[in-house]
């Protein structure tokens, strides 16, 4: 009886196991499609993710990682888009210059955003750290994106030297129009009273009406700025510098602005800054006494010579700039004077006023000036230093 009972229990267990297997099989049959779907979906999502990530890294993302630190970020480069460039042409240029990763992506993005026709010609500052959208926006907004540059005009440069420097620094492509505008200054006479004064006072011998009025300094301009824009930048600075001269003129009423600038230009060329006020005093003394200024720098301006020892042919050249022949100041300024030279023209060294009437160069290697009260002492100084001047001129010529 007991044996029979055990056999029945074994049969019941087998039937339960068989039933559980059938249930599990039925459940798996029902769940298998769902599991296959989700596994497949996970694989597809993973593939899509890696595909998108790969596409972004290789075709869409900025060429360089990191944020732009500011306007002076070293990653910025200057890119010039020529007039008539197509979207595909611009994309090709940007790819060649390392600004974007892929030409087609840039082109499709520009067209999708309806920005293709708005991309402009001009010079732009772009960074490989910029996104495609940022680059497209920049190329669509010319005024906000024009590249800037700086140029420097040194103290004591004349108009022609200045023009050559502007070309060399890339501010101008050619000096012709710049010199034409500086010749008469007429285009600026209505806007600047000191230019109008110089324009009205200019005689037929005047080389450039704007000589002396383009203030020496460092300026920032948009790349490709016109000659007029560049000149106005310098005239505006000169207007600021002349405020002292205008106030002095109103108080004294003796010298015109043009006379002050002319005298300052001579001081600038004759000496180093330490001697400006003393040289100014000598010129003031000679003007007061009706003596010729006999300034070599005025002769050098019209002859182009840079010698310390001028010959009789140079000092007798027929010109209103020649202060060996003409009494008073020359026809106009001979360079662009600094603020210090302008101040020296207005305020000469009082200890030298009514005392010193002569000066000459000392040792050319030192650049010092030697002053004298009398003609006799001046001649002694000239004889003392002339051999050094001759040797200096000889070395320069060689």
Characterization of the model:
This protein has 398 residues and is mainly alpha-helical. 54% of the residues lie in helices and 7% in strands. It has 16 helices and six strands. It has helices at residues 2-60, 87-96, 103-112, 132-139, 142-145, 159-168, 176-184, 193-201, 227-241, 243-252, 257-270, 276-289, 296-303, 312-315, 339-346, 375-397; strands spanning 77-81, 122-126, 148-152, 218-222, 358-361, 369-372. The strands form three sheets. The chain has a two-stranded antiparallel sheet. The protein has a two-stranded antiparallel sheet with strand order 3-4. β5 and β6 form a beta hairpin. α2 (87-96) packs across α3 (103-112). The longest helix has 59 residues, at 2-60. It starts with a helix and ends with a helix. The mean pLDDT is 86.
Q: Bin the helical content.
A: 40-55%
Query: What does the largest sheet look like?
Result: 2 strands, antiparallel
Structural class from helices and strands? mainly alpha
What's the pLDDT, averaged over the residues?
A: 86
Topology as a string of helices (H) and strands (E): HEHHEHHEHHHEHHHHHHHEEH
- According to DSSP, the number of beta strands is 6
User: What assembly state would you assign to the polypeptide chains in this entry?
Assistant: single chain
Estimated radius of gyration: 40 Å
Question: Helical element count?
Answer: 16
Envelope shape: elongated
């Amino acid at each position: 009886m007991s044996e029979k009972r055990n056999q029945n229990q074994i049969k019941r267990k087998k039937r339960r196991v068989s039933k559980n297997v059938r249930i599990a099989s039925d459940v798996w049959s029902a769940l298998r499609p769902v599991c296959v779907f989700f596994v497949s979906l996970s694989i597809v999502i993973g593939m899509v993710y890696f595909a998108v990530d790969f596409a972004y890294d290789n075709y869409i993302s900025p060429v360089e990682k990191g944020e732009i630190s500011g306007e002076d970020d070293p990653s910025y480069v200057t890119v010039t888009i020529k007039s008539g460039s197509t979207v595909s042409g611009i994309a090709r240029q940007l790819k060649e210059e390392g600004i974007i990763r892929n030409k087609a992506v840039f082109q499709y993005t520009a067209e999708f955003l309806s920005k293709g026709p708005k991309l402009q010609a001009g010079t732009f500052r772009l960074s490989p750290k910029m996104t495609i959208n940022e680059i497209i926006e920049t190329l669509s907004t010319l005024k906000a994106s024009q590249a800037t540059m700086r140029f420097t005009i040194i103290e004591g440069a004349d108009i022609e030297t200045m023009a050559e420097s502007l070309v060399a620094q890339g501010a101008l492509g050619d000096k012709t129009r710049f010199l034409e505008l500086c010749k008469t200054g007429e285009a600026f006479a209505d806007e600047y009273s000191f230019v109008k004064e110089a324009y009205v006072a200019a005689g037929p011998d005047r080389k450039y009406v704007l000589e002396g009025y383009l203030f020496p300094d460092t300026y920032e301009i948009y790349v490709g700025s016109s000659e007029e824009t560049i000149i106005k930048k310098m005239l505006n600075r000169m207007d600021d510098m002349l405020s002292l001269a205008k106030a002095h003129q109103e108080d004294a009423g003796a010298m015109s602005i043009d006379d002050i600038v002319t005298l300052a230009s001579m001081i600038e060329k004759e000496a180093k800054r330490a001697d400006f006020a003393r040289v100014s005093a000598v010129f003031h003394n000679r003007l007061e006494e009706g003596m010729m200024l006999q300034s070599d720098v005025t002769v050098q301006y019209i002859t182009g010579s840079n010698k310390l020892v001028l010959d009789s042919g140079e000092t007798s050249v027929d010109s209103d700039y020649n202060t060996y022949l003409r009494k008073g100041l020359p026809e106009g300024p001979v360079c662009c004077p600094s603020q210090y030279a302008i101040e020296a023209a207005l305020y000469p060294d009082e200890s030298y006023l009514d005392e010193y009437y002569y000066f000459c160069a000392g040792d050319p290697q030192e650049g010092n000036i030697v002053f004298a009260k009398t003609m006799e002492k001046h001649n002694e100084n000239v004889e003392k230093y002339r051999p050094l001047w001759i040797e200096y001129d000889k070395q320069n010529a060689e």
